[in-house]
TrEMBL record:
Subcellular location: Secreted
Residues of the signal peptide: 1-21
Taxonomic lineage from the root: Eukaryota, Metazoa, Spiralia, Gnathifera, Rotifera
Database matches in InterPro entries: Leg1 (IPR008499)
Source taxon at top rank: Eukaryota
A Gene Ontology cellular-component term: extracellular space
Principal location class: secreted
Family designation: Belongs to the LEG1 family.
Pfam family, one: Leg1
Protein name: Uncharacterized protein
Keyword annotations from UniProtKB, A to Z: Glycoprotein, Secreted, Signal
C-alpha cells in the first residue's frame, strides 16, 4: 500500500522527457511572427468620443491577440533576466506561449480552423489565467509601460488588474511579485550567476505564481469540463493540470527548448476521443502513447499522497536536482529513477529544507 504512490510517482515520471542531448528545434508558436510585439500593435479602440484617445483594444479570445500578450511579456522581460543575454529563447516564460501554441495546433481552443478561441474551450479558459493574468500583473508591476489598453471581456473572466485582483488575488499577487523582483536593480545580487540563483530567485517565484494560477482557475472553469469532446480528453486535461504541480515542485526550467522537448515527445497533436485506448493509438508516437497511458492510469484519489511524497523529495535545492533526474530518467530506466528518488529523499534529510 505505501509503496504504491512511490511506484506511481516513478511511472508518472515516464511522461517527462529525457533532457539528454540538445534540441536543435527552437520552434516558435504558430503565427508568432504575426502577433503584435507591442501594445501599439493592437487596433485602436474605435467609437471613442475623444479623438486623441489612443487606447488599444485587445481581445484575449483571439489567438493572435493572446499570443501578442505573450510576445510582449517575452520582449519586455528578456532584458531583465540575466541568463537571457544570448537569446530570448532562454526566457523562462517561453514555456507558456509554447503550451498555448500546442493548444491551438491541436484544436484544444476549439478554433476549428479559425483564429478565435471558443469560450467553451476548457483549455482556452485555463490558459486565460496563464496569459491575461501574468500580463496584467506585469503591467501592474511596471514591467510593461506602453500605450493604454482595454481588454475585451467575455463571460465572467476578469479583464482589468483591479477586477483580477478581486477575482483571483493569490495568483495576481504572486505574479506581481515575480515581475516586481525582475525590476529590482540589484535583485539577487551576487558575483556570478549560477543554477542555485536560477532556482531560488527566478524559477521559484515563477512556479509559485504558475501553480497558483492553475489551482485557483480550476474550480472557476469546472463547468467547461463536460464540454470537452470525450471523457478521455477530460481525464487527460485534468490529469495534466495536476501533473504541472509535480513539475513545478521540481522547479524544471521552462525555457523554450526544455518545454518543446516534452511537448514534442509526449503531447497528443489532436483532441482525444473515447475510442482512444493508449498505448494503442496508431496515429500517436510510442512516447505519446506511453505518456497518455500513464497519465490516464493515475487515480485522482492518489494525488494527495503523491503530492506529500513529492513535497519531501523536492524540499531543497539538492533534492530537487535528483527529483529532476527522476523525471528525466524514468523513461529510460526505472531502476535508475528509483535510485535518484532515494537520493532526493536522502538529501531532503541531509540538507535543511527550504523555508515556507
Ligand atoms: C458607440 O458606442 C455607443 C455607446 O456605447 C453605442 O450606442 C453605439 O452604437 C456605438 N457606435 C458604433 C458605431 O459602434
Ligand atoms: C527572439 O529571438 C529570435 C531569434 O534571435 C528573434 O528572431 C525574435 O525576433 C526575438 N523576439 C521574439 C519576440 O521572438
Ligand atoms: C534551457 O534549460 C535547460 C535546463 O536547465 C538548460 O540546460 C538549457 O541550456 C536552457 N536553454 C537555453 C537556451 O537557455
Ligand atoms: C469546434 O471543435 C470542437 C472540438 O472538436 C467541437 O466540440 C465543436 O463542436 C466545434 N464547433 C463548431 C462550431 O464546429
Amino acid at each position: 500500500m505505501t509503496t504504491t504512490p512511490v511506484l506511481i510517482l516513478l511511472a508518472l515520471a515516464l511522461i517527462i522527457p529525457s533532457l539528454n542531448g540538445s534540441n536543435p528545434n527552437e520552434r516558435l508558436p504558430t503565427f508568432w511572427d504575426e502577433a503584435p510585439s507591442s501594445i501599439s500593435g493592437y487596433p485602436l479602440a474605435s467609437n471613442r468620443s475623444v479623438k486623441q484617445d489612443l487606447t488599444r483594444l485587445i481581445d484575449p479570445w483571439l489567438y493572435i491577440d493572446r499570443l501578442g500578450l505573450y510576445k510582449i511579456l517575452i520582449i519586455t522581460t528578456t532584458p531583465l533576466m540575466p541568463f537571457c543575454s544570448s537569446s530570448n529563447v532562454s526566457n523562462i516564460l517561453f514555456g507558456l506561449p509554447s503550451q498555448f501554441g500546442w493548444q491551438f495546433d491541436s484544436n484544444r481552443l476549439f478554433s476549428n480552423g479559425s483564429r478565435k478561441i471558443s469560450t467553451d474551450s476548457w483549455w482556452g479558459a485555463a490558459n486565460y489565467y496563464l496569459s491575461v493574468i501574468p500580463f496584467l500583473a506585469a503591467v501592474d508591476a511596471g514591467v510593461i509601460q506602453q500605450d493604454s489598453f482595454e481588454l475585451v471581456q467575455r463571460e465572467n473572466f476578469c479583464s482589468s488588474s483591479s477586477e483580477c485582483f478581486r477575482e483571483i488575488p493569490e495568483a495576481m499577487t504572486l505574479w506581481r511579485t515575480f515581475f516586481t523582483n525582475l525590476r529590482q536593480a540589484n535583485y539577487c545580487q551576487s558575483n556570478s550567476f549560477d543554477n542555485r540563483i536560477m532556482d531560488r530567485c527566478y524559477l521559484a517565484p515563477m512556479w509559485s505564481a504558475h501553480r497558483a494560477s492553475i489551482r485557483y482557475a480550476l474550480p472557476m472553469i469546472a463547468s467547461k469540463i463536460p464540454l470537452l469532446p470525450s471523457v478521455t480528453e477530460q481525464r487527460f486535461g485534468v490529469g495534466w493540470a495536476h501533473l504541472v504541480d509535480f513539475i513545478g515542485m521540481a522547479r524544471e526550467n521552462t525555457n523554450l527548448s526544455n518545454v518543446l522537448k516534452y511537448q514534442d515527445a509526449f503531447f497528443p497533436y489532436r483532441l482525444l476521443r473515447n475510442d482512444d485506448h493508449p498505448p494503442h493509438c496508431p496515429d500517436f508516437s510510442r512516447t505519446v502513447n506511453q505518456g497518455l497511458e500513464l497519465l490516464l492510469s493515475i487515480k485522482p484519489e492518489w494525488n494527495q499522497e503523491m503530492l506529500r511524497l513529492w513535497q519531501r523529495a523536492t524540499c531543497n535545492y539538492e533534492s530537487r536536482q535528483d527529483a529532476q533526474r527522476v523525471l528525466q530518467i524514468a523513461a529510460i530506466s526505472k531502476t535508475t529513477a528509483l535510485k535518484y528518488y532515494s537520493e532526493a529523499v536522502l538529501k531532503s534529510y541531509l540538507h535543511e529544507c527550504d523555508q515556507n
